[in-house]
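ok here's Cytochrome b5, seq below lol
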Amino acid sequence: MADEVSPPPATEVASIATPINLILIALFMILAYYRLTPKTAPTLPTPPAPTVFKTFTPPDLEPYNGRNNMPVYLAVRGRVFDVTPGRNFYGPGGPYANFAGRDASRGLACGSFDEDMLTKDLNAPLDTLSDLGDEEMEALRGWEERFSEKYLVVGKLVPVDSVEAKDATLVEKL
Ligand code: HEM
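and the structure came out like this:
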């Protein structure tokens, strides 16, 4: 019969495996692979170490003088500030290095970083500053305000022979 449908030529059947089709199949497989493989959990940035409020005696505070890669702390009227971000000021060789690891109250009040502004005997009672005048106490309040805005309070300074110091030692031993 003349109008019988003839099968497609062999070249037409083979044309499904053209280079472009092979590339598309490969792309599809790559995409499918990436969609289906499980993603690794996103890693969160590690939070900074929590600040633990501690009780320091002057000898406890002394090692925080910026030497041996230690943080830098100083005390102002019983409050211990972490002044590590100001290491340039208080670290070894800095202009105010004398204050590091010490009670800096008198020096700040009197506007002097001389050695004799520091309490020599670390086991002695804390400096009461009772001999200072209004102007000096006002200057000290100014420094405290500045430090409170700029630095973290990490603890309090208590004298060696105080009940608080003994309590703190007991808590540490628990
Ligand atoms: C010779 C005179 C002095 C000059 C030229 C001077 C200069 C400076 C300068 C430029 C700064 C940096 C300020 C900033 O960037 O925030 C600074 C900070 C400081 N100064 Fe002086 N200073 C002098 C005397 C003193 C004295 C006598 C004291 C004693 C109490 C003192 C205590 C401080 C302290 C504690 C800081 C650092 C405050 C912080 O941690 O932010 N300065 N000084």
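fwiw The two ends are 106 Å apart (CA to CA). kinda neat tbh
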